[in-house]
Amino acid sequence: MKSARAAVGILLAAGAACAEAGGDPTGGQLTPAGQLAVTPPVFAPPAIDAGNECGTGSKWSELYRDIFGSGKAGSCTFAANCHGTPTGDGALSASAIKCFDEAGCRQSIIDQFLARPSNAENPTGSPLIKGILRARTASGTLRGIMPREPADYVFPQACLDRISGWIANGVPAD
Fold first, then answer.
1. Residue 117 contacts by C-beta under 8 Å, 6 or more apart in sequence?
2. What would the pLDDT profile of 60-75 be if each residue is shown by its tens digit?
3. Which of 23, 42, 114, 157 could anchor a disulfide with 128, C-beta 3.0 to 4.6 Å?
4. How far, CA to CA in Å, does 18 sit from each of 15, 26, 30, 39?
């Protein structure tokens, strides 16, 4: 009798959780809220001025908005397994870059020694610019290891210049 009551309680709790999450506890199709919860968002890159895919400015908030946290190709938050969620492979990797919020992204870049105030004298020599971000050298060869997705993404020089400007300013919060 005790186990039957426990089973009924579990079923009621499951039904309530299903209904709360947007499902139909009696079976059938998902409610609109449930459908929304299981449908991934459509990727839409942020609007950037035509001819300047990297945006403008070298304040950290501008870099995060346009490059690091934008969700567009090349950003740290481009794919679920990148650095944009606490459970993403990139956030759990040895580099531990965590870009699911603006302040945390900046701090993890500093904590991993990718860009620090001490790089201000030579921003292009910082590990972030010199070895992490995939870019084309003056001779045309590729350098850098990120992003992993999309694998063929190469940071435009305009993006690297903006990031270098931020590093030259001492990697300020803004």
1. 170, 171
2. 999 999 999 988 888 8
3. 114
4. 5, 10, 10, 16
Q: What one-character-per-residue DSSP string does 14-33 give? A: HHHHHHHTT--TTSSSPPHH
For the chain, the C-alpha Rg in angstroms (whole number) is 22
Nearest alpha carbon to residue 132 among 118, 119, 114: 114
46 dihedral zone (left: phi>0; alpha: psi -120 to 50; beta): beta
Predicted TM-score (pTM) of this structure: 0.68
- Only one residue has tokens 């971000």, namely 133
Q: How far is residue 159's CA from residue 55's CA, in Å, rounded to a whole number?
A: 8
Residue 99's alpha-carbon distances to 33, 35, 69, 130, in angstroms, are 28, 28, 6, 20
- Report the C-alpha gap between 160 and 152 in whole angstroms: 17
Tokens of 70: 């934008």
